[in-house]
Design a protein that fits this description.
The complex is a heterodimer of chains A (318) and B (478).
Chain A (H helix, E strand, L loop, with lengths): L1 H27 L16 E5 L1 H6 L2 H7 L9 E5 L9 H10 L7 E6 L6 E3 L4 H8 L3 H4 L9 H7 L17 E3 L5 E3 L10 H21 E3 L1 H15 L2 E7 L4 H10 L3 H11 L4 E3 L17 H23 L1
Parallel strand pairs in A: 1-2, 1-3, 3-8, 8-9
Antiparallel strand pairs in A: 4-7, 5-6
Helix pairs in contact in A: 3-12, 8-10
Chain B lengths: L5 H16 L5 H14 L6 H20 L2 H38 L7 H8 L7 H17 L8 H9 L1 H4 L7 H9 L6 H34 L7 H31 L17 H7 L2 H18 L4 H16 L3 H19 L1 H11 L3 H24 L3 H11 L13 H21 L13 H18 L13
Chain lengths: 318, 478
C-alpha cells in the first residue's frame, strides 16, 4: 500500500509537471503576449519608457536611419506602460540586465511622459519599491532566453488554454520580435473606424483625468530617472524624447504638470543629454486613442526621430 | 509566503518530509522553525510581533493559573492590552488618526499635525495579525475562565500561535482543540496524507481557477464603475460574493489539508453558507471560527456580564466584526449592515411567522424567499466591503440599478464569462452535495478507473485553466 501510494503520487506529480511544461513550451512557440518579445533576446541599444514609446517607435526604422553610424545592435523596444515601467530602481535594474555587460556604444532613447514620474498617492520610497517589485521586471530573472520559460511561468497572466484558443487577439495589433507594438488602422480582417478612435480618445481623456486626480509627482522617480541617465551614459549615447500625441492629451498633461517639458529640459542640460520635444510640433501624427500613435504615424515619427538623432550624432562627431 | 506561490511548492513537501523523519520529541522544533520561516518569507522583521504576542500570552497563561482572583485579572488585562495594543498600533492607528482629523476638520478645528495620519498609515500591516492575536487572546481568556490548563512547554505554545497552515488567515483555532493535538504522537498515516492532499488540491482549484478568475471581472468593474452602468456592476457585485467565498474557503481548505497531512485536524470555517435561508443560518456557516470567537468572548460577556440587551449586543458584535476585517469605515458599514439584518430577523421573528401562516406559504417557498433576501442583502453589503471608500460604494450602488445597456462582457471575452458561470455552478453543486468538509468523498471509495480519470482531469484543469496571477488571498490583508 505504502510503496504503491508513493509511486502513484510521484507519477501524478511528474504528469502534472510534464503536462505543464509541455503546454508552456507550446505557448512559447506562438504568440505569448505583447511584452514577451522584449525578453527573448540580448540587446545592446534600447528604447525605454511607457506605452507611447512601446507603440510609437519602431527600432528597425531607427536602426535603418542610423545605418552609417557605429551603433551597437540590436536595438530593442524596451518600453512598456505606466504599470510596468515607470522610472525607478526596478526598471533601472531591468535595463541593466537587458543590455550586455560590455556595451559601450549603445543608443538609448528614453521616452518621457508624466506617467513615468508619478505614483498613486502619497508613498514613501520603501512602499514605491515594494509596489514596483510586483512589475514584470521585479519578478523576472531571465531577460534574454528564447523561449523564455521564466517569463511564461512568472509573468504570463492568462490561462494556458489560450494556446489552443487564440480568438481573442486584437487583429489590428502586430507584436514585433524587436519589441515594437504596432497598431494598424487597416488590416485584411478589420478596420479601426474613426468613430472607434474618437470613442477611445474620450475614454483615454477620462482615464487620464481619473489617474491625474490620484497621482502625485514623485521625487523618487525623478531621482531614479537621473540615475538611469547616469548609468546609460557610460554605455553609449543617451537621448530624451517626448513623443507627439493628440493636442487634447498633451494639453491635459501640461495642465497636470505645467512645466514638465521645462523640467525635463533642465534635467537634460544638467546631464548633458539632448532632449527632443515633439509635443510642440503641428499635429502631424495620428493616434488611435488620443495617446498612442497608429502604425503609419509611428513609422513616420520613427523616421523623423532617426533623422534628428543622425543630425545630432553628426554634430557631435564634428 | 503564499500557498499559491512557487516557494510553497518546495516548502510544503520539505516540511512534510521532515515532519515524518524527525523523532516525535523534536517535531515541535521542526514545525516551529518551518512556521516562522513561512511567516518571515513576507517581512522578516514583523515576526517580532508574533513573538511578543506569544511570550506575553505564555507567561500570562502561567501566571493566571497560579494567581489569585485579583492578580488573575491583571494577567488577563495584560494579555488583552498587549494583543489589542499590537492590533491598534499596527492596524488601526492611521485609520483612527485620519478619522479623528476628519472630525476636527468637519468642525473647523485645526488639525494637530496633518501628516501624522499619513505617517501612521505607512506602518506596515503584519500579515495575519488579526488572526493570531485573536487566537492567543482566546487562549488567555480560556485559561482565565479555568476552562483549560496553561501550556507549560513554551515551544508547543509558540507552535500553537504560529502553526503555519492557519497562521495568516485562520481558522482561528481554540487552544483546547489544537494544543493537545500538537503534543500527541502522530504516526505516518497514508489515509491522512491522501485526505489532506485532496483538500489542498480542492483549495488550489478554488483559488487559482475559480476565485482569481472571478476577480478579473470584479477588478475591472470596480476599477472604474463610471464606465459600467447597470448590469456589469450588478454582475460584478454577485461575482464578488462568490469570489470572496471561494478565495477564503480555498485558503481554509489548503490550511485544513496541509494540517491533515501531518495528522492534525483544524476546524471547518464554512458550512455551505451560500445555501443559508436566513441571516442567522448564514452567520452560523460563514467564517465559523471568527463568529464563534465573537460569540464566546464578546457577545456572551456583553449580554451576561454587562447585562446588555440582546439586540444591542448583536449590533456591537457586528460593529467589531466589521472593524476586525479592516481599518476602513467600509468594513464597519459592511459589519453593521449585516448586524442590522440579523437584528431585524430576530426582532420580526414572531411577526413573520404570523404572516407566513396567514399566507399559507410552504416551508420550501419560505426557504427560497429567505435565500433570495439573504443572498441579495449579502451581495449589496459586500459592495461596501470591496469598495475603497463609502463614497465609492454609494456611487457603485446608485449606478448598479441604472441599466443603460445589456453589455455585460466587459472583459471582451465571452468564453471567460461563460467559464465563470460554469465554475460557480460546478463549485456550488459540489458544496451542495458534499458540503465544505467532505470534499475527499469526491475521490475516495471510487473505482480505480474513475479515480484516475478524476486525477487526470484535475491536472488538465489546473494546467489549462489556472490563472497565474499569484494573487494574495483576500483575507491576508486582515
Amino acid at each position: 500500500m505504502g510503496k504503491n501510494f508513493y509511486l502513484k503520487l510521484s507519477f501524478f506529480i511528474l504528469l502534472f509537471i510534464g503536462t505543464y511544461f509541455f503546454v508552456v513550451h507550446q505557448l512559447s512557440q506562438g504568440y505569448v503576449d505583447v511584452y514577451y518579445p522584449k525578453f527573448t533576446q540580448r540587446a545592446e541599444s534600447l528604447i525605454i519608457g511607457l506605452s507611447r514609446g512601446h507603440d510609437g517607435i519602431s527600432p528597425d526604422v531607427i536602426a535603418d536611419e542610423l545605418d552609417s553610424f557605429p551603433m551597437a545592435r540590436p536595438l530593442i523596444n524596451f518600453a512598456f506602460d505606466k504599470y510596468q515601467s515607470p522610472y525607478g530602481e526596478i526598471y533601472l535594474e531591468g535595463i541593466a540586465k537587458k543590455i550586455g555587460e560590455n556595451t559601450e556604444d549603445g543608443l538609448f532613447i528614453l521616452t518621457l511622459s508624466p506617467g513615468g514620474f508619478t505614483i498613486p498617492g502619497k508613498m514613501d520610497d520603501d512602499a514605491i519599491l515594494k509596489m514596483d517589485k510586483k512589475m514584470i521586471m521585479g519578478k523576472l530573472s531571465d531577460f534574454h532566453s528564447n523561449p523564455n520559460y521564466n517569463y511564461i511561468v512568472k509573468c504570463y497572466a492568462q490561462s494556458l488554454y489560450a494556446v489552443y484558443n487564440r480568438n481573442n487577439l486584437f487583429e489590428n495589433q502586430v507584436t514585433h520580435p524587436n519589441g515594437w507594438n504596432e497598431i494598424k488602422v487597416y488590416t485584411e480582417e478589420s478596420e479601426i473606424s474613426e468613430a472607434d478612435m474618437k470613442h477611445w480618445k474620450s475614454l483615454t481623456l477620462r482615464g487620464y483625468e481619473q489617474i491625474m486626480k490620484k497621482e502625485k509627482i514623485s521625487a523618487y522617480r525623478i531621482r531614479h530617472f537621473a540615475k538611469t541617465l547616469t548609468f546609460l551614459k557610460e554605455r553609449g549615447t543617451v537621448l530624451m524624447v517626448r513623443l507627439p500625441s493628440d493636442p487634447d492629451i498633451i494639453a491635459l498633461e501640461n495642465a497636470y504638470w505645467s512645466n514638465f517639458s521645462e523640467q525635463m529640459d533642465s534635467i537634460s542640460k544638467a546631464h548633458k543629454v539632448p532632449f527632443f520635444d515633439y509635443t510642440k510640433q503641428p499635429h502631424a501624427y495620428k493616434t488611435y486613442d488620443g495617446s498612442h500613435l497608429v502604425s503609419r504615424s509611428a513609422v513616420e515619427f520613427s523616421k523623423r526621430l532617426g533623422g534628428d538623432i543622425r543630425a545630432y550624432l553628426k554634430e557631435q562627431n564634428n | 509566503m503564499l500557498f499559491n506561490s512557487f516557494e510553497f511548492l518546495f516548502f510544503f513537501p520539505l516540511i512534510l518530509l521532515g515532519f515524518y523523519l524527525v523523532p516525535h520529541r523534536m517535531r515541535w522544533i521542526w514545525l516551529l522553525l518551518g512556521s516562522y520561516y513561512f511567516y518571515m518569507a513576507a517581512e522578516p522583521s514583523l515576526v517580532l510581533l508574533l513573538l511578543l504576542s506569544t511570550v506575553v500570552d505564555y507567561f500570562c497563561g502561567l501566571g493566571m493559573w497560579k494567581a489569585g482572583q485579583q492578580l488573575k485579572k491583571l494577567y488577563l488585562a495584560t494579555s488583552i492590552s498587549v494583543n489589542i495594543g499590537i492590533l491598534f498600533v499596527f492596524k488601526y492607528l492611521g485609520f483612527f488618526t485620519a478619522s479623528f482629523q476628519g472630525v476636527l476638520g468637519f468642525f473647523g478645528l485645526p488639525e494637530s499635525d496633518p501628516d501624522s495620519a499619513y505617517q501612521f498609515e505607512q506602518i506596515l500591516l503584519p500579515v495575519g495579525i488579526s488572526f493570531y492575536t485573536f487566537q492567543t487572546l482566546g487562549y488567555s481568556i480560556e485559561v482565565y475562565r479555568g476552562n483549560i490548563k496553561p501550556e507549560r512547554h513554551f515551544g508547543t505554545f509558540a507552535l500553537y500561535v504560529a502553526f503555519f497552515p492557519q497562521l495568516v488567515a485562520g481558522p482561528i483555532e481554540r487552544a483546547n482543540r489544537l494544543l493537545p493535538q500538537l503534543k500527541k504522537r502522530i504516526h505516518l498515516d497514508l489515509g491522512n496524507i491522501r485526505k489532506g492532499l485532496i483538500f489542498m488540491a480542492w483549495g488550489f482549484f478554488l483559488k487559482i481557477v475559480v476565485a482569481d478568475r472571478l476577480g478579473l471581472y470584479v477588478d475591472e468593474a470596480y476599477s472604474d464603475p463610471e464606465l459600467y452602468h447597470g448590469l456589469p456592476l450588478a454582475l460584478s457585485a454577485i461575482f464578488f460574493g462568490f469570489q470572496i467565498y471561494y478565495d477564503f474557503s480555498a485558503y481554509t481548505a489548503i490550511a485544513i489539508g496541509a494540517a491533515k497531512t501531518m495528522g492534525y485536524d483544524l476546524m471547518q470555517n464554512f458550512n455551505r453558507p451560500f445555501f443559508a435561508t436566513s441571516a442567522m443560518q448564514f452567520w452560523n456557516r460563514w467564517h465559523i471560527s471568527l463568529t464563534r470567537w465573537m460569540l464566546d468572548y464578546l457577545y456572551r460577556p456583553l449580554k451576561v456580564t454587562l447585562k446588555m440587551s440582546r439586540l444591542l449586543a448583536v449590533f456591537l458584535v457586528f460593529f467589531v466584526i466589521g472593524l476586525w476585517h479592516g481599518a476602513n469605515w467600509t468594513f464597519v458599514v459592511w459589519g453593521m449592515l449585516n448586524g442590522l439584518l440579523l437584528i431585524l430577523e430576530v426582532a420580526t421573528n414572531g411577526f413573520r411567522k404570523k404572516i407566513i401562516a396567514k399566507l399559507g406559504l410552504s416551508k420550501k417557498v419560505v426557504g427560497v424567499l429567505g435565500w433570495i433576501i439573504v443572498m441579495g442583502y449579502l451581495v449589496i453589503s459586500l459592495i461596501f466591503f470591496r469598495s475603497p471608500s463609502i463614497e465609492a460604494a454609494w456611487y457603485y450602488l446608485e449606478h448598479m440599478f441604472t441599466i443603460t445597456n445589456l453589455h455585460v462582457n466587459i472583459l471582451n471575452n465571452y468564453f471567460e464569462l461563460f467559464l465563470s458561470f460554469l465554475l460557480i455552478l460546478g463549485v456550488q453543486a459540489v458544496h451542495y452535495t458534499k458540503g465544505n468538509h467532505r470534499i475527499d468523498e469526491l475521490v475516495v471509495h471510487k473505482s480505480t478507473p474513475l479515480r484516475w480519470t478524476i486525477y487526470i482531469t484535475y491536472i488538465l484543469i489546473i494546467v489549462f485553466f489556472a490563472l497565474n496571477r499569484q494573487q494574495t488571498f483576500i483575507y491576508f490583508q486582515f
